[in-house]
Structure formats: structure tokens, C-alpha cells
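Need residues for this backbone.
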């Protein structure tokens, strides 16, 4: 069976089939077995990557989608009011449910979501987000009756217990890892900044 992949690895980064040249000119590799891929971009079948040499790589699709999900999630974490948060409609998309369904479940279990778990954006905050980040699609949330809610890391963790679905649990694991990765980056940058500041103070005293 030929494994059809939507993503491949190029220059150590995940890349979509839609952003590469056809055939071996794509210069991509399998995210699972690291075998060379060929980009199939014909007129009659859905575009996809396939292994250049056939082999048993059953985990390729799962690995590719897992990497894609992690990348997408990291792009959907914003800093608002000094906290790392995710928008309700972004979470709903990842969970595979309607935004209204997600917020309805939250309202039914509102006691589980204190202000440090979830809060509603002010109009100016949401307009600022839409103007600053290309990951927010033009018009996203424009026709909503209510301003979006955002969830902190603790709020996202609570969502899986409210939605009670296998997919929600799997997505939450990826989200938690994304939050941890960003937190580590913040700490590493802060540590570096502290070291530079100490060096500057040391040289200023000389």
C-alpha cells in the first residue's frame, strides 16, 4: 500500500505538499523513516507525498500529522494580559467541534473556569489581535454575537474534562507540550538576558 502524506520535511522544517515543486525536485524527506519523498502533483488525484522507494513506513502519516498539529498549535498561542492563552474558536477547530458547542459546555460547567483559567476579551484586545497576527483569518469572529473567550494553560487542561472526548484528550496533550515549549523558550531568553545584563554591569565597573 502506497502511503500518501500531506506533509514532508525540508531543510529540517515541516512543509505542505502545496508549497513544493513536483517530483523529486521537492527535496523532501519522510518525517518518520527519513526516506526520500516524491511530490505527486497530478491533475486527477489529490496532491500528496509518496516514498521514492516503496517500503514499510506505517507510522509516516501519524508522525506527519502530529508534527503539523504541534506547529499549528504553537502559532495559536498568544500573550494577552501577561498570560499565554488560546482563543475559543481556535480550540474548537482543533477539537473538531463548533465554537458554540465549546462555549456552551464551558457555561454549563462555569464553576470549573475561574478568571485565571478563562476570561472574555475586550473589543479593543480582539481588534488588536486581528490586526497584528496573520494566523487570525481576515473576518474571523467578525459576525460573532459575543466577543471570544480565551483559555490559559490551566483552562485548556480543564476543557478536556468538560468535552469528554478522546480527540479532546489527544489534542490537549499536544497543547500542553506546546505551552511547556514556549515556557522553556521564555525562561531561556530571560536567562540569556540576565547573563548579558550582568556582563554589561561587570564591564561598566572596569
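Answer:
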Amino acid at each position: 500500500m502506497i502511503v500518501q502524506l500531506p506533509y514532508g520535511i525540508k531543510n529540517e522544517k515541516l512543509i505542505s505538499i502545496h508549497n513544493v515543486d513536483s517530483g523529486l525536485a521537492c527535496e523532501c524527506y519522510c518525517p518518520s523513516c527519513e526516506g526520500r519523498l516524491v511530490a505527486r502533483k497530478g491533475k486527477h488525484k489529490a496532491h500528496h507525498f509518496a516514498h521514492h522507494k516503496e517500503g514499510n513506513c506505517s507510522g509516516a502519516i501519524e508522525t506527519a500529522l502530529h508534527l503539523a498539529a504541534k506547529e499549528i498549535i504553537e502559532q495559536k498561542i498568544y500573550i494577552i494580559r501577561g498570560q499565554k492563552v488560546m482563543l475559543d474558536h481556535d480550540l474548537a477547530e482543533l477539537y473538531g467541534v463548533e465554537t458554540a458547542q465549546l462555549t456552551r459546555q464551558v457555561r454549563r460547567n462555569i464553576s470549573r473556569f475561574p478568571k485565571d483559567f478563562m476570561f472574555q476579551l475586550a473589543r479593543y484586545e480582539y481588534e488588536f489581535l486581528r490586526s497584528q497576527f496573520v494566523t487570525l483569518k481576515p473576518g474571523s469572529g467578525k459576525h460573532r454575537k459575543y466577543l471570544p473567550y480565551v483559555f490559559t494553560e490551566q483552562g485548556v487542561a480543564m476543557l478536556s474534562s468538560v468535552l469528554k472526548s478522546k480527540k479532546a484528550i489527544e489534542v490537549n496533550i499536544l497543547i500542553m507540550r506546546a505551552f511547556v515549549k514556549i515556557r522553556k523558550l521564555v525562561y531561556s531568553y530571560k536567562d540569556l538576558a540576565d547573563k548579558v545584563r550582568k556582563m554589561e554591569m561587570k564591564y561598566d565597573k572596569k
